[in-house]
Specification:
Elements lengths: L2 E5 L5 H10 L3 E6 L5 H6 L3 E4 L1 E2 L11 E2 L2 H5 L4 E4 L20 H4 L1 H6 L2 H7 L4 E7 L8 E3 L10 H14 L5 E7 L1 E3 L6 H4 L14 E3 H13 L6 E4 L7 H11 L16 E3 L2 H5 L11
């Protein structure tokens, strides 16, 4: 049975682990919460309590808590699925004025210490779950060939991490840039319902359903599609106003109101490469 190491068993990682097991893989899955260990084990996942941190002045080996060598051992493929948890155009208030690079780039510095362990392990392929935020606020049509120009701290650190992994010759890395993540229990309309003067009413949405996130990852692994960059966005791009109004109506929520006084700006992110090169057929063609 082929074994995979999955770093991050959260909103996406946990159902991904379940899908991998259904497809005949054995899964080593990490969590930062000891209370979740028994639940992962009950699902057939080999659980590991692993925490990555960016601590000023600490040795790389001190930034990783948990049996990281055992977590990698025996796996050919590693999926890195941990969010940067950064907001805004600059670092958050706890890191913005920090003198050390490790604190200015907390997500990058969390990933860096993993690399020597990956190099020494049985890992040959890395799938890094990134985000279309690396394209910044560019307008027009976006493909994988579009230069990444992130303007948020999250996007900047994701792009730097992408480069860090891709440039390492000791393993192959595929980057998967997901659009806005939605699912049965997750939709941004719940935060926008009833809001007034929302901007960019005519801008297209660039979302992807959890089921398609999992489907694309499974396809990449099944076809050994490494050293690639893929956009993961559903080919369903109604305007923000159309989509959010419809979703609010469906969920019996207060309708959002949009500002039409200014022209709309926005990007249309294409996933043609996922369909035409990877050969993936989207499950959720309407969101």
């Amino acid at each position: 049975m082929t074994q995979i190491s999955l770093l991050g068993c959260g909103w996406l990682g946990l159902p991904l682990a379940k899908a991998l097991i259904v497809n005949g893989f054995s899964v080593k899955g990490s969590t930062t919460s000891e209370s979740k260990i028994s639940g992962l084990k009950a699902l057939g996942i080999d659980p590991f309590l692993i925490t990555l941190s960016a601590v000023e002045g600490a040795l790389d080996s001190k930034r990783i808590t948990g049996a990281i060598e055992d977590f990698f051992n025996g796996s050919k493929t590693l999926v890195i699925n941990i969010p940067p948890q950064l907001r805004g155009k600059n670092s958050d208030s706890s890191t913005a004025n920090a003198p050390s690079a490790s604190l200015r780039k907390p997500f990058v510095e969390k990933i860096k210490p993993l690399i020597p362990y990956i190099e020494k392990s049985t890992i040959e392929n890395v799938l890094f779950v990134s985000s279309t935020s690396v394209y910044g606020e560019a307008n027009g049509t976006i493909t994988e060939e579009t230069p990444a120009q992130p303007d948020t701290e999250s996007g900047k650190q994701l792009l730097e991490t992408e480069t860090l992994l891709q440039n390492n010759p000791n393993f192959k890395t595929t980057i998967l840039r997901f659009g806005g993540l939605i699912g049965e229990d997750r939709n941004p309309i719940r935060f926008l319902a009833g809001k007034e003067n929302l901007d960019n009413p005519e801008a297209p949405i660039n979302f992807i359903h959890q089921e398609d996130c999992i489907g694309i990852i499974l396809k990449i692994i099944a076809t050994d599609s490494w050293n690639e960059i893929y956009n993961g966005v559903s080919p369903f791009h109604p305007s923000r106003e159309t989509y959010y109004t419809q979703k609010a109506t469906e969920l019996a929520l207060p309708l959002p109101r949009f500002d039409h006084s200014k022209p709309s700006n926005g990007k249309l992110i294409l996933s043609d490469k996922v369909e035409n090169v990877l050969g993936y057929a989207f499950i959720k063609t309407e969101l």
